[in-house]
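so my prof wants the structure for this chain in the tokens format not the other one, which i didnt know existed until like an hour ago. anyway here's the sequence
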Amino acid sequence: MSHFILIVPVLLFSFVAHEYAHVWAALKQGDDTGYMLGRLTLNPLPHLDPFMSIIVPIGLYVMTNGAFTFGGPKPAPVTPRNFRNYRRGDLIVSSAGVVMNLILALVCAGVFVLIGFVGAEVGALRGLMGTLQTMVSFGVWFNVLLAFFNLIPIPPLDGSRLLYHALPPAWGARYQQLGGFGFMLLMATFFVPGFWNVLLWPVGMVTTTVQSAIGAYSLPIVPWP
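here's what i got, hopefully its the right format
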């Protein structure tokens, strides 16, 4: 439970930053829908969905005794027809959240190293610094996971828009029709043997590489007043 309390702020900020990136990119491409609805903010409240952000994750966490949880924010409101260049704008906006999460993963890695330097120099803060390293280390893993998860080509995830533009127009039109079943298809992936192993393989590879690069700066986690 103590680790759960530590990682909640990381989870929340990562989700919010992802949606913020979509709204910011859409605004730059000519669509102010999200901006007008107050979603161009890092305040988490406008981004939270009562069902997906609170009820589902808490319910799954309780039912699985902390072994599993799943949730998400409200999708960023975007009106693609407002883009100055529809295809270019849609590709940029759809990629923005993934790019933001990868940037956050790198930032967390940099903060991990910085904390390591400070903790090594100021022994009195080593316990606190070790705890903060736990948070940003999780931030590396979670943001990489969120990036790859959103690349899954199932609506409404970002990967579905990227795949749509890669398909011939006739195929793309049929593919869009899956949008109404996206949530059910996404839930079904949890029951497909090996699906999540395939997804988590690149996540594990990337995070292991990053952790190997920054591991020398790790501090021990010790109690602090």
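also thought this was worth mentioning. The CA atoms of residues 20 and 40 lie 6 Å apart.
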